[in-house]
Amino acid sequence: MKVFVCCLFIIANISNNGKASLESFAPSGTNILFEDTTKNLDKVSCYRPCKFNVKPKRCHYNFKVEPTIQEDGRPAITINGMTPGPPIQACVNDIIVVEVQNNILDQDISIHWHGIEQKGTPYMDGVPMVTQCPIGYGQTFKYAFVATSPGTFFYHADSVSHQSDGVYGPLIINQPQPLEHHSSLYDYDRSAENTLTIGAKFPELLTAKLEDVSKLKPDALIINGDGDVSKIVVMAGFAYRLRFINAIATECPVIVTIEKHEMVVIATDGKPTKPVLARNVELHPGERMDAVVRASEEGGGYWVRVHGTGACTGLGANAMLIYSGFNYTAMLAENQNEYKQESFASDLVVSGQMLESLQDQSHASEVKSVYLGIDRNTVQVKEADLDFRYISDAIPKKPFFPAAFALHENGVVQINKKSFLYPNVPILLRPRDVRQDMYCKVGEEETQVEAQCIQVLDAIEGEVLEIALVNEGFGSNDSYTFHMHGYNMQVISTWQNPKDKPISKEDFQKLSKDGKISRNLQNPPVKDTITVPNKGYTIVRIKIDRGGTWLLECRSCALSSVPAAIMIRVPETIPKAVVDSLPKCGNYRPPDVLLN
Ligand SMILES: *[C@@H]1O[C@H](CO)[C@@H](O)[C@H](O)[C@H]1NC(C)=O
Ligand SMILES: *[C@@H]1O[C@H](CO)[C@@H](O)[C@H](O)[C@H]1NC(C)=O
Which keywords label this protein (predicted)? Predict the structure, then answer.
């Protein structure tokens, strides 16, 4: 085993006192590039100091996905017995290989690598019937992709229900320290220890329920799983880069706050931002934030509190910020996992969409405007007419996850009054075999009579899409979180109707015609996960530069429901050799005896 010895250890001018100012985060001397983390190497196979001009590594993981009874007696779906699953830690240019074996009887899964661009490997994006065949019971799918961009990412089951049942984990891509934009603001970036992956637990397995689960709410928040309270160990005077991941699949924004310590947010969704001082960091489901905390107290232990909002209101979870040498035994005894109003000062709340990126977009040229009207609609169809399963020519009517939707009572969240339909074959790999009558084009949905269709937005390389996601709010009072696969979005406008009145397409067009929609093109935040406020809109721009079939999907709409998503299709021909090498839908089932 190699030993990484920490390098220059020069401490100068550590400012210990100034708190509520950015200045106190000024450099504290030469950065300690890396310290001895060999103790982690067994757990995280590619975790190492990233260097220039060295051969990338191949980081290999085996994921066995299966139902497990947790220590507290609850069932969960775990990866290698754990939830969250194994942390993936790599350096830029490494090749990440994950062999996923599905051991969930009668259920199909796939894993999505949230925020990963999949440059050159659009068929590794993990969306069943869009980029691959779903992984059936007993099957193994080998994911392999290059870690092209550094940052804080995570992975999760593509299905919201499986993710909620426990199938998720952190994915961190590091780069040589001199390339980190804000490395001068911190001394340590221990991404293996200082990442908080925030999840939620439901009282029962969502994927085991056959009836409507849309009313089920999480009853606990967890940080890095169920085990010991997570501890961030610091030395007085030094500054640490922390990474927060909201890995919850349902509409549970969370707020992270550290007792007696301010933070400086330096990145969101893996992309560096202009540094912003924060007392509270807000993360919507699927969002990530990197923040620097300076150990500005003399010692002691402080709670890192995570409290839920939205569907997780009233829930909380704690981690600890421990100064080296502090005896925290007594502190642990008072750990309360409820959110207490008095322990939370609601000022200096920083959320992803208010940050500024380091990229000025004001030169952006022509755009193609697209309107997506999002609302909860009651659909006038018989349940039997709707298909909330994958339909595959190889797996006749095989249920994807056993969940019905609350069609008649609550309606379903739709985009332009349609629900997304998974194609009959993986569309990226076999475009010509997709049934033509399943399609509807974004903007021309009214020509399709079915309530569900493959909602496609065709785009070509070089084009800039300007997509207005308008949460019309006639049928609901919810905000929604959307995730863009494979691409980043520049968020140029976020607005909520101060009058709390629904907005129709006509209202939006009038606002637009009257020049009442402001667009910020100067350093707009660059994100892969955004929130669209209730009775408001979020406008994003996407510069199309790569082929593939990429979902823009509402993550928080789909619990026990048909998906709300559109597919952005950019011409791309997958080489025949690749298509032939990928598993066919449902063609291989090893006998049960091999699975145990
Ligand atoms: C830490 O504190 C606990 C109780 O507060 C005590 O029992 C224990 O001996 C202490 N440990 C050390 C190493 O001082
Ligand atoms: C939304 O909120 C308004 C006002 O608070 C209420 O009248 C309406 O019933 C709510 N709509 C839904 C779908 O909950």
Answer: Copper, Metal-binding, Oxidoreductase, Signal
Pocket test for ligand 2, best of 215, 477, 478, 479 (most atoms within 8 A of CB): 477
* CA neighbor of 205 nearest in space, from 193, 194, 197, 213: 213
CATH architecture entry for 2-178: Sandwich (2.60)
pLDDT in tens, 334-362: 776 655 655 566 788 999 999 999 987 76
Q: Name which residue sits closest to atom 12 of ligand 1, judged by CA.
A: 327
CA of 338 to the centre of ligand 1 (A): 26
For 383-440, how does the pLDDT look when each residue is reduced to its tens digit (9 = 90+)?
A: 555 554 554 333 333 444 333 444 556 778 999 999 888 888 899 999 999 999 999 9
Atom of ligand 2 nearest to the CA of 476: 13
For the chain, the domains span 2-178, 206-354, 368-581
Domains 206-354 and 368-581 alike in fold: yes
pLDDT in tens, 177-231: 999 999 999 999 999 999 999 999 998 888 776 555 667 789 999 999 988 899 9
Pick the CATH number of 368-581 from 2.60.40.420, 3.40.50.300, 3.30.300.70, 2.60.120.260: 2.60.40.420
Pocket test for ligand 1, best of 324, 328, 329, 335 (most atoms within 8 A of CB): 329
Q: In the prediction, which pLDDT does 452 show?
A: 85
* C-alpha 291, offset from chain centre: 17
Please state, in angstroms and as integers, the Cα–Cα distance from residue 377 to each residue in 160, 373, 382, 407, 517, following that order.
20, 11, 14, 9, 26
Q: How confident is the model at residue 506 (pLDDT cuts 50, 70, 90)?
A: very high
Pick the ligand that lies closest to the CA of residue 375: 2
435 φ/ψ angles, rounded to the nearest 5 degrees:
-65, 125
Ligand approaching nearest to the C-alpha of 325: 1
In this structure, CATH architecture of domain 206-354: Sandwich (2.60)
Coil, strand or helix at 581: helix
